[in-house]
Amino acid sequence: MTRLFLAVALLGLPCLSFAEDVLDGGNTAWILTATALVLMMTLPGLSLFYGGLVRSKNVLSVLMQCFAIACIASVLWLLFGYSIAFGEVTHGFFGGLDQAFFKAISEDSVSGGIPTSLFALFQMTFAIITPALIIGGFAERMRFSAMFLFSAVWLILVYAPITHWVWGGGWLGEMGLLDFAGGTVVHVTAGVAALVAAIVLGPRKGFPHQAMPPHNLTMTVCGAGMLWVGWFGFNGGSALAANGDAAMAMTVTHISAAAGSIAWMAMEWIKYGKPSVLGIVTGMVAGLGTITPASGFVGPMGALVIGLSAGVICYYATHLIKRKWHIDDSLDVFPVHGVGGILGTLLAAVFASSELGIFSGQGLAEGVTIGDQFVVQAIGVASTFAYTAVVTFILLKVIGVMVPLRVSEEEETQGLDLTLHDERGYDL
Amino acid sequence: MKLITAIIKPYKLEDVRDALSSVGVLGLTVTQVKGFGRQKGHNELYRGAEYQVDFVPKIKLEIAVNTDRAEHVVETIVEAAKTNSIGDGKVFVTPIEQVVRIRTGETDHDAL
Q1: Are A76 and A151 in contact (CB under 8 A)?
Q2: Is the pLDDT of residue A256 over 80?
Q3: Which of A112, A289, B4, B96 lies 20 to 30 A from A204 at CA?
Q4: What is the mean pLDDT of residues A229-240?
């Protein structure tokens, strides 16, 4: 129990000054590694995953968007993002600007046993992948300039504040919300933003009647493999130390990914008679996204249940959003990440409990029941959902006044690679 | 002179080529093509969504022969390419007006 809340507390601590902290070489080595793993999730993992899922005429546009977001998010994190997320806690909604420009960070700064610069960099890789996840919602139709502007402002107005709420000492963290590695901070925000963007931009030309199958599933599977490996850094690194919490977080992450894959594959096998490759890797992402908030709090058998439920529920959510509601969230960001993040955040309240026999986790706080924790988790999900949806909607409408959000119909037909970048992915 | 155009299943190419060699066909042109007939394409499944794909990969063979040999060549192709399942393909026979061998300038029968 102590370890559990130490890990949670560590996430919020680096905003403070730790003059007495001593650098721990083992912890530092692990978080350096984890940081590289999380960056690998976007570059190249997500790039290849998404790149393969779009049509060949748009492959470069997706790779470009992932790369450009990595660049702009890094710079903005340095300037203001980190400070809004982890700066001085006052009212609990936005951090102060005392950490802007990393001005309080030197090579000697240490927070929680690791260099403060490393903590800021580790968190920067989270700030990179979150807006990069969103591009799946509006893939194949958004103008690059609008996407660039949107991602930049969204990072400052949505990602950084919600990070402060949960990890930076803000109001959700104070309430006791369990979000070990980003169920609300990363997956709910990205999923909801993708859904809102898909609705605001409208469907791709030809959706849902025209088939828009992935152009290169080989790329997608390679990218998915990198995401799985990178997720070890995402969840294992969120322990912010090389210890048992990190090891258990990685263990449950791995189990959930495998279980999610099997569940999605089984759904398709039963329904269509064949297990699809895209199905098994999508189930993996669903399993990973769902275990993320719970990863530091649950045990291996809890992770198995979480992974299996992720595979089934995210599968049905994909059908609901795309086939029933006809919302063209192009690469299924909301059903996989958003629904997964919500599910995992809620299930964390259940499987963190130490009173479930073999399905027990590391235990809830003293005197807190599953029901109490579930209410806190639900408040976390609802507030993150609502804030993200409203701010994303307003942001897109404002940007839409300044620059067109969508490419023209002719540009969309010709493909974004040629029309926006004067390049083509393949010249065979 | 006749031009025999055969659309066959890709995996039958080697069988057809061997059969044609055995009846003395000296040259042919092979192209990878896509199309559909009564088979009406096939289904593909992505994240639980089924797509009807209209165009099925096929192989197109083009063979120019003397008129008196055309029937035998067509029979050879049909026999080698047949699987008795849907999508085996078709053979078209069309007249050729002129043939020129580029290297020598020979024409018509001499050029075949």
Answers
A1: no
A2: yes
A3: A289
A4: 98
- What mean pLDDT is predicted for residues A222-249? 98
B51 touches chain A (CB under 8 A): yes
- pLDDT tens-digit map of A400-417: 999 999 999 999 999 999
Please identify which residue in the block is written with the tokens 């999605």.
A264
Question: Rounded CA gap, A271 and A269, in Å?
Answer: 6
User: Of all helices (H) and strands (E), which one includes residue A253?
Assistant: helix A244-272
- Distance in Å, alpha carbon of A208 to nearest chain B alpha carbon: 11
Chain B residues closer than 8 Å to A272 by CB: 45, 48, 50
- Beta carbons of B47 and A272 less than 8 Å apart: no
CB A366 within 8 A of CB A333: no
Residue A8 scores a pLDDT above 50? no
What share of chain A in percent tops pLDDT 70?
95
Can you tell me the distance from the alpha carbon of A208 to that of B50, in angstroms, rounded to the nearest whole number?
11
Q: Is the pLDDT of residue A193 over 60?
A: yes
User: Is residue A18, in this structure, part of any structural domain at all?
Assistant: no
Domain count, chain A: 1
Residue of B nearest to A332 (CA): B47
* 3-class DSSP state of A382: helix
Mutate to test the interface with B, among A216, A271, A274, A276 (most CBs of B within 10 A): A276
Cα distance between residue A63 and residue A37, in whole Å: 18
pLDDT digits (tens, 9 = 90+) for B32-77: 999 988 877 788 888 878 888 888 899 999 999 999 999 999 999 9
pLDDT of residue A33: 98
What's the confidence (pLDDT) of residue A194? Answer: 98
**In this complex, is the C-beta atom of B46 within 8 Å of any C-beta atom belonging to chain A?**
yes
List the single residue in B45, B51, B52 with the smallest CB-CB distance to A268: B45
- Determine if the peptide bond prior to A14 is cis (ω within 30°): no
Beta bridge partner(s), residue B62: B5, B29
Task: Read off the CATH number of the domain in which A330 is found.
Answer: 1.10.3430.10
Is the CB of residue A164 less than 8 Å from the CB of residue A94? yes
Looking at the domain assignment, is residue A211 inside a domain? Answer: yes
* Chain centre to alpha carbon of residue A243: 23
| Mean confidence (pLDDT) of chain B | 93
Judge whether A106 lies within some domain: yes
Looking at the domain assignment, is residue A410 inside a domain? no
Domain that holds residue A69: 2-12+23-404
Tokens of A408: 């023209």
